[in-house]
Amino acid sequence: MTVPIQSIVAGAAMALSGATAEPPEPQDPQPSQPAKNVFNPQMSIVTDFRGILIDNHGEKEWKLNELEFGFAADVDPFLRAEAYISVHKSGHHHHEEGMEEGLDEYEIEIEEAFGVYSGLGGGWQVKLGKFAGAVGRIQRNHIDQLNFLDYPFVIQDLFGDHGLRAPGVHASYLFPGQQFLELTLEAVQAEDGPLFEHAKLDKPVWIGRLRTFFDFSEDLSAQLGGSILTGPRDEDRATVFGLDYTMKWQPGQKGQSAVFEAEAYWANSNEPGFSSTFGAFAALTYQVAPRVFLTGRFDYSELPGTSDVRRGFGGNVTYRLSEFQLLRLELMRITSNFDDPRTVLTFQFQYLIGAHPAHKY
Prior knowledge:
With 361 residues, the protein is mainly beta. It is built from three helices and 16 strands. It starts with a helix and ends in a 7-residue tail after the last strand.
């Protein structure tokens, strides 16, 4: 090892003079750029703007349909927290004196706010808070993650316009082995839905779900799931059985992919006069160009507790300029035994700011 001559000379001079070297002044550690943001949550804003271009049952209008604010962060090494707050049109109008009739009203809703313990080991995961129930696949995604404008009729008619979202407890178990197999059990307080009513902590809606995956090839995969729900309906009980199937074809070539998704639900209740109901939907989305997707969809739903039935058939073309924005034009034809046929053509402009969780398979 070579020592610079300047160091030798300086050291000799200090020794002759009897001086001692002063230790350097301590410096405060300077955090790196990632450390500065370690306590800041991931944040996102999803804006859903729509124009009703044709509606033979309503007015043509432009509307800011929804703003969704999302927050997610690791609380500590054990817990991850997420929250999603929606500001959306309520469907009501002001009629107060001196105010213009038809003025839009918006309401704030906490769609989800929960914490997840995923490092428990043994294949277990626990979730606490308000969350989307483990019912099928579609309703566990937010509306902005769908391949069409809104949730299918059967989801809305059984669980509400935004699906089944309620406070409760969730536990899931991933079975060991090469085949993916997950069992989920939940107890939620879904108290004001179309089917379940007056659920409480000591009288919850119980949800069970089993799902598995299949890899047919490098390009083709599928998910199959089954759900069962039982809970209070006023002074009686209601039960729902559901099946869901999703298949994805992703050959890895730019501008090519396809998704087929279908779900079916059977509902029953011991309420006097309640007839068993059935509802289902199926949709196929095909990518025809790098940014262009075509979707066709069919809906069928028997409204619980009534003899009413409604059907929907239609499709859309979606232009995704990137993963952060899209333009969509959707045409739906809706028929029922309680209203005249309805034709609706809707334009949608949707964009995302910030980080957003990945779509569920």
